Amino acid sequence: MRLNPKIILLILTFLFLPIITYAQDCQLAIPRYGIIQCVNASEEKTIRLDIGEEYKGDWSINTLKCLSYCIIKKKYIDINCRSSHTEEYQFIKNGEQINNTFPITWGRGDKLIFKVRCTAKNNTYNLREGSYIEYNQRVIIFYEGWNETTLEKPIGNTTDCSYKTFKRAEVDVFLDPTDGTIRLKPDSTYESLGKFPENWRVGDYYTYVRAWETELGDITFTYDKYNNYYWCGGEKESRIIYEAERIYDPNGKCYDVPIAIYSSGLECCFDSDCEHLGEKYVCDPDTWSCEQTRWCDSTPECKELFGEDTCEEDTLNTWKCNIYRPWGEYKGSCELEIMKVKECPQDCERDYNYEKGECVVQEEQENLLIQGYAVANPVKLELSLLQKIILLICMIIIIIEVIYYLWK
After folding, report:
1. What span, in angstroms and rounded, lies between the C-alpha atoms of 165 and 295?
2. Does residue 107 fall inside a structural domain?
3. Of 190, 367, 381, 390, which one's alpha carbon is 20 to 30 angstroms from that of 346?
4. In terms of Cα–Cα distance, which of 294, 277, 147, 118 is closest to 208?
């Protein structure tokens, strides 16, 4: 089955895109907190409640709900009894009967029950259809702003301070890199988004991330040898690496919020920090210090940059590509291997044994040739006629077996 080239390209994109864009898509930022708060608006709304639908004994029982501040006036009650009947009603506030003196007021947290019935000649009767009671409720709504004293604008569709779809990024603690201070999110009436009630009380508020501050000085990202990225700031020769927590806002935008100092007092984070030492120096992310090293795929690359082997006073200096220390997309890291030796290569008349650090003597040279370690005079393999015939027959048998397998 052949794969569509577009599918292959798409797979490769998904494999490598996170490595390439993991840091670039995110900004280092600290939160700027704002609040939403339930407040009284300037207007009121009228609530009409049909009564006479639920009874307990002789009485029609009606619960009058109030989310803010509410008021009933006499003219707001229409009890429909027969002409020969008399209306009778009571108000029960928080379990106690109160005088029927208008206006009657109550607020959020109060429980007001309106009991009503029709009577005639010591008998009671149900209300006729069309009975109702009206009361005014002060409109409450959410406002948002930077704090309680600077509430700026109402939030639409939040009448009665009901907000079930409030989505914001949450950051409870962060490190401000501008002064090194750990800062906490200010207190709220409710601990988290998941603990909102259906309706808030007037004065309840919640602190949330309203904006992000991204101008945090000269802080940018860098990578170690394993493609892990770090946010680094501070001055050259006194660099600071920050530990950050990844946060996504409701729109999917990515921010890295500093939460601690990962390491400080570092010589470098970037190769440019080492330019004053010469072109052979780069910032080694294993130690975050300026070193003579470089990424590599083979030893010849290291020798081309740093020079061939040198040996003097029984010390051999050799540049090698250490493939056990890969660097990003490269196979290894250039390392200078320093070894004490008995002799230097330039002191030898023949070959040099790098493992032993000494010249190869005549007898050892012959042994190396026999073992196949030297290629100056390669040994020729001469086959007899019989050996050649046997080898040819074996090859023919193998070819026949392959043809039979494919044909079958």
Report:
1. 51
2. yes
3. 367
4. 147
The Cα 147–Cα 153 span in angstroms is 12
Q: Is 373 helix (H, G, I), strand (E, B) or coil?
A: coil
Residue 157 lies in a domain: no
- Residue that terminates a domain, selected from 107, 124, 141: 141
Tens-digit pLDDT profile for residues 231-245: 999 998 999 999 999
Separation between Cα atoms, residue 190 and residue 206, nearest integer Å: 6
pLDDT at 6: 39
User: Does 311 fall in a domain?
Assistant: yes
200 compared with 381, residue with greater pLDDT = 200
Query: In terms of pTM, does the model score above 0.85?
Result: no
Instruction: Please check whether residue 233 is in contact with residue 261, taking contact to mean a CB–CB distance below 8 angstroms.
Output: no
Residue 56: which CATH number? 2.60.120
- Asked if residue 13 is part of any domain, the answer here is no
- What's the rounded Cα separation, in Å, for the pair 238 and 265? 4
Q: How is residue 281 written in tokens?
A: 């120096």
Task: Look up tokens 């406002």; give the residue.
Answer: 143
Contacts of 87 (CB under 8 A, 6+ apart): 79, 81, 116, 117, 118
Q: Domain tally for the chain?
A: 2
CB atoms inside a 10 Å sphere around CB 78: 13
Q: Are strands 132-145 and 77-78 parallel, antiparallel or unpaired?
A: antiparallel
Q: What is the domain extent for residue 87?
A: 38-141
Q: Tokens 């070959």 map to which residue?
A: 351
Q: Residues 343-394: pLDDT tens digits?
A: 898 888 888 888 888 898 765 555 555 555 433 333 334 456 677 788 888 8
Domain end call among 141, 160, 190: 141
pLDDT number for residue 183 = 95
At 38 the three-state DSSP class reads strand
How far separated are the first and last CA of the chain, in Å rounded?
21
- Is residue 260 within 8 A of residue 242, CB to CB? The reply is yes
pLDDT at 133: 92
DSSP letter for each residue of 193-206: GGG--SSPPTT-EE
Write down the residue that tokens 């330019």 correspond to: 275
Buried-exposed string 164-192: b where 16+ CB fall within 10 A, e elsewhere = eeeebbebeebbebeeeeeeeeeebbeee
Q: What does the H/E/C string look like for 44-79?
A: EEEEEEECCCCEECCEEEEEECCCCEEEECHHHEEC
